[in-house]
Amino acid sequence: MAGVGADGIVAGRRVRERHPDLVVEVAHPQIIQESGAQILHHANLLVGSPSALADQATEQRLLEASHRWDHAVFVARGALWGTEDITRLDAAGGLQSLRVTMATHPDGFRLEGPLAAVSSTEHRTVLYEGPVRGLCPFAPRNSNTMAAAALAAPSLGFDRVVGVLVADLSLADMHVVDVELTGPPGPTGRSFAVHTHRENPAEPGAVTGSATVTAFWRSLLGCCQLPSRPGIHLC
User: Fold this and answer.
1) What is the per-residue DSSP string for 206-224?
2) What is the per-residue pLDDT across 188-210, written as a single tens digit (0 to 9) for each?
3) InterPro entries, alphabetically (predicted)?
């Protein structure tokens, strides 16, 4: 991508000189954390690493820059199925809990910090279960679906959407994402519930499944047709 150096830091001067309408990040959340606000001075931004927004300071900088320079922050939904349904239910006050589980072979993970030291020699090992905000810093390339879910449900956000990361030795060529959500109890005491199960073929050891690449391309095409308005918008 033009304007990205070997060290992964966007060169703001080159972005300015090329007068882009849209800058697309698909490399690493560090790009967004360190240079996202600077990019918004010159162009709209499509974030391919939503896990960057788990950092509250980064999210705040992007929002401030977006409103100051009147540029949009688009966020690709990636492997998250049912994004619009989650957002609509949340906006209507009908979302009580949201849980996203991502499972794949251990070779498909790029983990950091304490998660990198967790042994996954068992057939199926839960590496993390808890708030998405706590997962993103240690699995920045494997938590983007969960981060997108947190953005789709702002009433829960990164602190109340639950992310589960599972190493499964049987999933050598597959990424599996389960999204489970519930609403408040109805008149009979039973709660509204949805559970989606997504199986995405992937090359052994790949971070991204094949269908997610297509989903990102559709997000790119889609955001080019959306109005440029300040704020953070899933696409």
Assistant:
1) -SS-HHHHHHHHHHHHHHT
2) 999 999 999 999 999 999 888 88
3) Asp/hSer_DH_NAD-bd, Asp_DH, L-Asp_DH, NAD(P)-bd_dom_sf
